[in-house]
Amino acid sequence: MPRKLRIAAAQMGPTQKAEPRATTLGRMVSLLEQAAAQGAQLVVFPELAFTTFFPRWLLSGEELESYYETAMPNPQVQPLFDRARELGIGFYVGYAEKTPEGLHYNSAITVGPDGATLGKYRKVHLPGSVEPREGSRFQQLEKRYFEYGDLGFPAFRGAEAWHRPVMGMLICNDRRWPEAWRVYGLQDVELMVMGYNSAAYDPNGGSTEDAKLRTFHSTMAAQSNAYMNATWAVSVAKAGDEDGSGLIGGSCIVSPDGVVVAQAQTLADEIVCAEIDLDAVRQGKDKMFHFASHRRPEHYRRIVDQVGAQAPA
Amino acid sequence: MPRKLRIAAAQMGPTQKAEPRATTLGRMVSLLEQAAAQGAQLVVFPELAFTTFFPRWLLSGEELESYYETAMPNPQVQPLFDRARELGIGFYVGYAEKTPEGLHYNSAITVGPDGATLGKYRKVHLPGSVEPREGSRFQQLEKRYFEYGDLGFPAFRGAEAWHRPVMGMLICNDRRWPEAWRVYGLQDVELMVMGYNSAAYDPNGGSTEDAKLRTFHSTMAAQSNAYMNATWAVSVAKAGDEDGSGLIGGSCIVSPDGVVVAQAQTLADEIVCAEIDLDAVRQGKDKMFHFASHRRPEHYRRIVDQVGAQAPA
Fold this sequence. Notes:
The structure is a homodimer.
Chain A: E1 4-11, H1 21-37, E2 42-44, H2 61-65, H3 78-87, E3 90-98, E4 104-111, E5 117-122, H4 142-145, E6 156-157, E7 166-171, H5 178-185, E8 191-196, H6 211-228, E9 232-237, E10 240-242, E11 245-247, E12 252-254, E13 260-263, E14 270-277, H7 282-286, H8 291-294, H9 302-305
Helix pairs in contact in A: 1-3
């Protein structure tokens, strides 16, 4: 039986700090409905989709805590879960997690068409810093606001209606780290889903990388790692100008050949949809990237034995 | 002091099985001279540059042995070494190696402007098969003709005149394996050099991948892995139709941003030249890909603990 699945990237435009939570959630429900109208069975939302990208500010106390979800779902996100189940559609969504023990993670879950949580992931590659950069208008404080993910890269099976693909989740910066992709590749991943919030330029005035180059990097990371692990990939942005800080768009659906089959054209709320054939992963997995035939782990030790780079004398 | 270096990709057109060795070597000397005339200080030749890509045939005995070099240099390649030293130019070249112990490797060396060998590498990721495929017009018998490389991925320092860049070598199929790049990345590599012979299509009649897609893959592998390891990369083809078996071209020089700064336009002998600024690696190495700040090896264990893929239940 052909293993085909219709999938959507639900790119979100900017979410200003002052935007009420209910407004943002309404946009997400609307995107879900648009995707369902196009026949999508699985919708991928961005990282930290329910709010603005709050790690750009130095926050504390109640204001900071207001950005985290203490359960998933919970009353303030429930309408999204309810509407998805009504429509029989599944989704990936990124959110700020606070555990009962008081630990904080940059997390994502994938929910099946029946509302069951199929997989959970906590971001491993946190960018930014713990301490704020003095004199900067915007910060990148993920290392301050989140613990490093403690779940590794746990592949899981998608829903029956999706032909039970082996799935993996990443979040934003993770997608630039080939180690993360390979750990999923070694679990035979067929469909990678991931959301991101990526600066379109240095919000503090640097000029070495512009939005075009950063979008190229984002797309290339998805393309090449999909190719080298012979997997489909869906990579989804929160895009546009959030309170004066620009985010790239470029949400895309990428084939196991590393070819972009669909890509967002705006920096706003936008659905990008494609039918994917899960069996297209076989060409790569059975030939060029048949790991059992070609990998030589005895020469890869540095990857786990050292953290930083060590130059030869 | 600016760390600038002028570098050339010396793409080679096809080398037919019947072409005399001296003719091929003459073409290489000519490419070296063209590169020198353009100011190049380092020239990168393809994999197995001195002969046709012989693993496409089932060979044995003296005919097979004739493809290997029992020393490097040796009389039949000496003119290339002599001319390079006269011109004060260094080079990377791939060759079939036979050791005094009778072991065979798919190898490469980098030679400095003074003729000294600066680094040596033996291909780790051998594609193809040990046994010939019955009924096939062409074979891919690298696993039959070569041992797996036993040197790992040993970074080394380039010449003084090149500002002593940290260099790494790969050969052909290696460039598609992010583990190989990362092991060099963890040695702070600034300049990756590699040669390849890559089929333009399935020479036995398959139609799932054409030359355009395969060239895209080759270029993307260089671009993305250069970006993710913040290094310059030079990737050089033997191209064109060798005795009825097509090879892709697309030799390229890639920046640490993953941008192709120069690329071959033909499937023939062709020099592609660019001045590279080694300090351009700093943006990536100091920020996005500052490994010591961001890598989490505790979650990468599968990369060394297993060879093949293992799907979840």
